[in-house]
Structure formats: C-alpha cells, structure tokens
Design a protein that fits this description.
The structure holds two protein chains of two kinds.
Chain A (H helix, E strand, L loop, with lengths): L16 H9 L3 H11 L11 H10 L6 E6 L8 H8 L1 H15 L3 E6 L7 H13 L16 E6 L9 H8 L23 E5 H13 L1 H5 L9 E8 L5 E6 L4 H8 L6 E4 L5 E4 L17 E5 L5 H15 L5 H19 L4 H17 L3 H5 L2 H9 L1 H5 L4 H4 L3
Chain B lengths: L2 H18 L6 H12 L4 H11 L3 H10 L11 E6 L2 H5 L2 H12 L12 E6 L11 E3 L2 E3 L4 H14 L14
Parallel strand pairs in B: 1-2
Antiparallel strand pairs in B: 1-3, 3-4
C-alpha cells in the first residue's frame, strides 16, 4: 500500500471537528450561512464559486427534501489532496456536511466517492458509524431537537466527467454521467429534482474549521479575494512531492522553492483542464484573481518535452469526454491528432491557427467544464513553447509562421 | 447462461433490489455487485436487472458501457490498471507497462486465456506523488518497480481461486 508523502503541517490536523459542529449548531440557520459568506470562502474544487452563496441559494428554496453532496470524485489529473483529507480528517468532512445540512435544511448527505478510491469506503463507513453512536449523526444531531441528518457513501464507477456536479447527480440517480443543461442549477433542482448543494471535500472540511476557529482567523490567511488556506497536490519533477498547505496568493516561484522544484521549465496548474505556466511567469500567484486552481501542481523539469505533456492530457480527454457535445467529442480527437502531426513535423502553421479557432468553438459550444477547458493545456503549451514545438515542422512550413 | 445460473442471478438481484429499493438509483450499485461477482455483465444479466427495476434493457446497457469499471465484457479475476496520467508518466510508467505485458503475457486491453488477468489503463488514480501507481481490483500499489511487478503478479497467482469464477459475498457493505 501507499506511504503518505507530506510536505508541511496541515492546519486540518489541529482542528477539533466537533467543536466546529457544536459552534455551528448553536447558531440559527441564516447565521450559519452568513458566517460562511463572511469568511469569503470559495469552492476548493477549482471553480471557485462562493460557498456561502451556494448554501444560501439551496437554503432559500422551499421544500423539506434537500440534499448535501460531498464531491469526492477527485479525478483531475495531478490531484490527490482529497484522498489525504478523507484518509486523515474524515471527521472534518462529515462535520462540514452536517453543518451544510443544518444550514440548507437537508436531512441526508451523500459522499460520492470515486471508484478508484473504493478502498477508502470501509474506513469512511466506520467513521460514520462512530459518529452515529456519538449522536453526531442520526436523529436530533448534537442534541438539537428536530435536526435529523445522516450520511451515506455512494461509489462512482470510473468516469472523470462525474466530478461535474450535474453529471455526478445523474450518476447518483442511476444514469450515464452526462452533464445536464443549466439552469436549473442543482441548488434549485438537483438530486431527485430537489435543492442540492454539491461541495468539494476540502470545502466542507474548511467550513468546519471556520466554525471551530472563527471567520477572522480564516480570513487572516490568503488574499482579499481568495481567503483562507489551500491544499496543493504537488507531483512531477521535484524533490519533495506530496500534499502541502499554503495560503492563497503564494507565487509559483515560492511554491517551487518549498517543494524542491527550482529548476522547473514549466508547471501545469489546475490539472489537465488547467493551464501551463512557463518559467518566465513564475512570479504569478495561486489565487482566484490570478491563477485559479483546485490545487493540482505538476512540475516539469528542464528536459521534458511539452508536446508529450499535451498529448498525454488530450488522450485523457478523448477517453473521458462523455460524448454529448460534438465540439468536445470530436474536438479533442482533432487536437490529439494535431499533437501527432506536430511530432512528425507535418503540421502547418495555418493548421495551428485553425486549431485555435477550434479551441474557441469548444469553449463556447460545450455544455460543461470538460469540453470548455480540455484544450487549455495544449493551447497554453503552444503559446509558450511554440518555438520548441514548431521547430519540428519541415522547413517550408515553419517558414510560413 | 444456463437456466439454473439465470435463476441464481435473479435471486441475487432480487435481494439487492429489496435492500436498495426498486428505484433507478439502485442500478449502478446492482451493476457494481454483478460485475464484482461474475467479472462480466452479459445480456441475460442486463435483461434480469432491467425486469426487476422495470426499465428497458437498453438503459442498463447504456449505463454499463458508460462507466470504465462496469465494462460488460468478461474480465479476469484480477484487473490490473496502470495509471496513465502525466505524473506517473514522468515517474517511469512506460517501463512498468512493458514489464506488466511481459510478466502477464498479454497486451493492454486484453484478458489472459485462463481468465486470471485483465490488463488495462486507468485515468489518474490520485497517487501522483507516489508514481508509478497501479490498481489490482480495489487495491492500490504505489512506487511500482519492475521487481514489485513480479511480486504483485506472484501474489495474485497465489491468491487465485483456481475454479469458481464467481466471488462469494457481495460488493456492497
């Protein structure tokens, strides 16, 4: 089995999950939502939607049947922080889910655990059982009369696209994981057509921390527009890969120093759907106002061929596109073909220009984030490493560029 | 599928439906259980599941073929999935891929004739800091080297049940 790598000490280790839960349960439902809104926390999955606003939308909907879903379908290439959180701090996640349930008025929470993490299921179920025995799940949770909340674990079955919240809900309902049209958003009509909040594992754990330690404490980390601390999954060509915690706003350069990746040629931030940052831009910051990220950082050393990297990501998207939207289903195939042509030196600069147009089509005409972002990495690699890549083109064609 | 096998499967799926409820939400857990038990989901199984959930069998087929882990095709008792993501590639995935192919005598996407092994790729498994990583059924192996490939395969061969193709117990806990 695996031995955990750890870069630095995580704040999560020093938080009492149940102190957070008790503090939240002492508040009225609107006050819970106001606290999360005041913290300025944005979703830790990468999209960065304000958590307080999401809870407020779901909480304002009429009806008794509502759901809290914990998105543990951590499938973005290069991301593994949720695996560490679920392994080491499941109580924080469950406390966060319970707080969300109280806030929006739900009585069931579902952890959608990706199939690749099946081995974590028995561990999570054991913790849930303990929490039921301790009165922290079940009827009258934490002694609050009339607040019934329970949590179950549902398993995914190997589909990256199910990390998209509406595809995740389709999967939970027993369908192919194909994203829905939005609106309506899940906060209005989600699981079983009821108001549903879908939050990332780290978001829920961080919510429990906010109640345990207070809004001011949370806002003392990070930047004005990206409050709090963030877990980063660091892999690739560096001395110390692993899960690290940094405040939002850290520069790529400082992060690389911490992990021993000082000689990097480029880093891929945000996974396969993220963006490739070349060395000259290492002064940029990891925050929603600069480089938004779910925390995946893949480091590429000086000798790496960036075209191979682009090809690897595109192969992934060709496999994982659900196939609903034509620009995504076929666009990724054409992009991958182009990587092969570039490798052979048979891709003209004219065709590269056409690929850029195709990229725009994919961004505007794909329904979900997968198709909208799948060619980002290739495009940024073309932009920053164009010389290196187009070098392989036959002379006659590269001269036209 | 023999009539007796069909009857056995119908009894098993009926028990699952009783436990999970007759709603559509039960479909994926049922498919996971059938796949886990029999290593495939054949057309008889799809028909039985469809009957008991009161949906068209094509719905069952559509769902089973969508998810990588519910592949209806027959797979080996040990499904070995090597992570293909770029972090594992940087960590030397190609060497491990070649080693797996030679050790098992099959190419990626194939199942060994004795039904023991299926070799496949997996999308990112979330072990990027400890690559190369692979899954054998639900079990994760990290920092795999050519030598550990040999050990992993030997472990599987030793654990192979030899006769009964179906697993006892259930996938659900």
């Amino acid at each position: 089995m695996s031995t955990e790598t750890r870069g630095n000490t995580l704040t999560f280790a020093s938080i009492d999950a149940d102190a957070g839960l008790r503090a939240a349960l002492a508040l009225s439902r609107p006050d819970i939502i106001d606290t999360v809104s005041a913290s300025g926390m944005k979703g830790r999955g990468g999209a960065g939607f304000p958590t307080g606003m999401k809870w407020n939308f779901a909480g304002s909907e009429k009806g008794d049947e509502k759901y809290v879903i914990c998105n543990a379908d951590e499938g973005e290439p290069g991301t593994f922080k949720d695996r560490v959180i679920l392994t080491e701090f499941p109580d924080l996640v469950f406390a966060g889910m319970t707080i969300a349930g109280r806030a929006i008025g739900a009585s069931l929470g579902i952890v959608y655990l990706r199939g690749e993490y099946t081995y974590l299921r028995s561990h999570l179920n054991a913790v849930i059982k303990q929490r039921r025995a301790a009165g922290l799940l079940g009827e009258d949770v934490g002694g609050v009369k009339g607040f019934d909340f329970d949590i179950i674990v549902a398993l995914g079955a190997g589909a990256y696209v199910c990390g998209e919240e509406t595809a995740l809900i389709e999967s939970l309902e027993g369908f192919r994981g194909e994203p829905r049209n939005r609106p309506p958003f899940p906060v209005v009509a989600g699981f079983r057509n009821c108001p549903t909040t879908v939050n990332n594992v780290e978001t829920l754990a961080s919510a429990a921390c906010i109640f345990a330690k207070g809004v001011d404490w949370f806002k003392s980390f990070g930047t004005d527009r990206s409050t709090g601390f963030k877990l980063f999954s660091i892999s690739g060509d560096c001395e110390q890969p692993g899960v690290y915690e940094f405040p939002f706003g850290i520069t790529v350069e400082d992060l690389l120093k911490e992990v021993g990746g000082g000689d990097a040629k480029a880093v891929q931030i945000g996974g396969a759907s993220g963006t490739c940052v070349p060395r000259k831009d290492f002064s940029r910051r990891m925050a929603f106002e600069d480089i938004p990220t779910g925390g995946s950082v893949i480091v590429f050393g000086p000798g790496r061929d960036m075209l191979d990297v682009a090809g690897n990501f595109l192969e992934f998207f060709v496999d994982e596109s659900c196939g609903q939207c034509t620009p995504c289903r076929l666009g990724n195939v054409k992009m991958l073909e182009a990587v092969g042509m570039l490798k052979d030196g048979t891709c003209s600069a004219e065709y590269v220009a056409e690929l850029r147009e195709l990229n725009v089509t994919m961004q505007v005409a794909s329904k979900c984030g997968l198709g909208q972002t799948s060619s980002n990495a290739f495009m940024s690699i073309l932009e920053h490493f164009g010389d290196e890549i187009m070098d392989r083109a036959p002379q006659a064609e590269s001269a036209r560029s | 599928m023999l009539v007796t096998q069909q009857e056995q499967l119908r009894t098993e799926v009926t028990a699952l439906v009783d436990r999970l409820g007759p709603g559509r939400s039960s479909l994926i857990p049922i498919l996971q259980d059938v796949k886990w038990r029999y290593h495939d989901i054949d057309s008889d199984a799809m028909q039985i599941i469809a009957d008991l959930l009161d949906i068209h069998p094509v719905e069952v087929y559509g769902v089973a073929t969508f998810y990588a882990f519910l592949d209806p095709e027959a797979q080996g008792e040990f499904v070995v999935r090597l992570c293909t993501t770029v972090s594992c590639e940087l960590a030397g995935k190609e060497t491990i891929a070649r080693q797996l192919e030679t050790e098992l005598g099959i190419a990626f996407g194939e199942t060994s004739e004795d039904g023991r092994f299926t070799l496949d790729h997996a999308a990112c498994m979330g072990m990027c800091d400890q690559g190369p990583a692979l899954l054998v059924n639900d079990k994760v192996y990290t920092r795999v080297t050519p030598e550990t490939v040999r050990q992993i395969v030997a472990e599987c061969r030793a654990a192979y049940s030899g006769h009964a193709a179906e697993r006892q117990g259930g996938y659900l806990v």
